[in-house]
Every structure is written in C-alpha cells, then in structure tokens.
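Sorry to interrupt, but I need a hand with the structure work. Can you supply me with one protein entry, sequence and fold together? No commentary is needed, just the two lines. Leave the record below and I will have a look.
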Amino acid sequence: MLFRYSLMLSVCLSGLLQATLSAGDPASVPIVEPEFVCKASTGKDQDDMCVWVHPEDPARSVIITADKAAGQLFIYDLKGRQLHSVKVEKPGNIDLRAGFPLGDEQVPLVVCNQREGELKLLAFRLDPQTRNLVRIDNGKILTKSNYGGTLYHSSKTGKFYFFSTTKEDGVEQYELYDDGTGKVAGKKIRHWPVGQAEGAVADDAAGVVYIGEEDGGVWKLAAEPDGSDQGKQIIKIGEHGLKGDVEGVALYSLPHGKSYLIISDQGRSRFMVFDRGADYRYVGAFSVKGATNTDGIEALPVKLGPAFPAGLFACHTDRGSRDTIVVSWKKIADALQLP
C-alpha cells in the first residue's frame, strides 16, 4: 500500500513538474552564450538599442545603444568596441531607418525620445564614413509625454513616423519630415488609449506596429495614419507562462521566409518567440547568459560576417553595469530548432 501511494505521489509530482516546465519555467528554456558585451567606460544602463547595416560592407555595421542613466548614446562596432558617444538628457528607446530624405540626400535616420527636461523627440543622421551621429532635428518635436517608441517607414507613401509610447497617455504617432532648412521636424497626427507601454516595433512592409503594454500583453495596431484605430491584443499576460512586465519587442523577418515576433518577459528574464505567419503561435523561449530583468531588445535578419551568419539578437541586462549583450541569431535558431 505504501509503495502504491509512493508511486502515485511520484506520478503526480512528475506531472506537476512537466506542467511547470511547459508553462515556461526559466530552468526549462535553453540558455545561449553571447558573442560579446557592449561596455562603455561611462555606461550605466544601456537599456535599448538599434543596428545600422553598412550598405556596402556589412562588417562595418554598428550597434547604437541608449543609456538613460548616463545620459548618452553609444556606438559600437561588431566586436563590441566603442566608437563614439553623444550626450542626451535621459534617452528612452532608440530606432533607425535608412533612406530619410533630407535636402538633396537620403540619410540613415536615428531617433530617440528624451524623457527628462523638455520632453521631445531627437533626430540624428549616421555618417556612413565616420559612423558617428550628427544631430539634425530642429529641437521642436515636442511630446506631451513619452516613455519609449519605434520608427515606421511607410511602404505606401514613403513617409516616416515615430510612435511614442507613454506611461499613462497612450501611444502617439508623429510624422517626421524635412522642414526645408535641412532639419527634421515633426507633428502629432494620431493617438491610441493603450496602458503603460515602453517597447514597440513596426513592420514597414506590412504597415503594422506592435506595442508592448507592460501589464497587459502585446497590441497590434495599423501603422498608416488612415488605418483603423481599433487595435487587437494578440498576446496576453498569463498565456504560455508570460509573467510580465512586457518590455522589449522585436521582429526577425526573412524576406521570403519565416517571421517571428520576440518579446522580453522581464519578470522571468527570458525571451518569448511567436510565429507571425501562424497567427502568433508560441514557438518557444530562450534566455541569454548574463541577461536578467531585460528591458530593450533588437533582432536583425542580416548576415554580418562569420560571427553572425544569420544576423544577431541584442538585449539589455539589469545585472552589473547594465550593458547591452549581443548574440548570434544562429545560436537561438539552433536552440529552438527554428528554420
């Protein structure tokens, strides 16, 4: 009788363990090793990042991070060496799009939100020769409130926009344009009543933007100004073991292949992957060695030399000096058995 009871208890415990693992216990997800860590001598909390791909030599591409505590933007090469820095008063999220029309040129546009002092959006051009940032906004792209956000380049009209997320004022969409003097100007054109959100990412080709509502989940919104104002919640807190806060949001989309939505589950220090082509089916989760309580993330499906044959994944860590960690996407694809 005692043996039978022990056997039943063992089966129950085994079932409980399997249920815990399937719910997304951090111990059950693969841990991938980073290629390098972006460390700045004056860095304090590099919690968001973007990547510029050199149009002729991918090996000369750079990673740009926003450090809200240090009040700086940092630029690194693909070995993690710091190249340049720019002072910004508490930068929030940072994003980049190529081909912004400015005067007679088309320049790589980098935008971040300034979260202290005069609340506004700051714009920079990345110089392809020096790989330095040069301020190009007119200083007048003021926001009512801002917390994070993302850029969007319309494939329909060619116009550029920034979606500014906030703590309590929803999401605001700003159109960005050349003011005629070689400076970037902006104007607010739309607003959505979403809860506290910071992370966001846009799909230029599909005309959609994804907003990470920290205590709710992920919302999908039409990115075009004349699109529907009715958002759809596609991922909810509690599903697939998602604990929250939902922080970083990124896309890994191949031109003629799979497309994945990746979110940072800060409460579990892991990253969850969803298949966009299968109605956001949950694919799996992974952790990055050294990354805890992650804020911003970035994914790039572009071959960047031998170290990054399938692109890269970058993430913030709240551990130590709160740096940016960079991983080869191939390691993630292998760990999750992605094509």
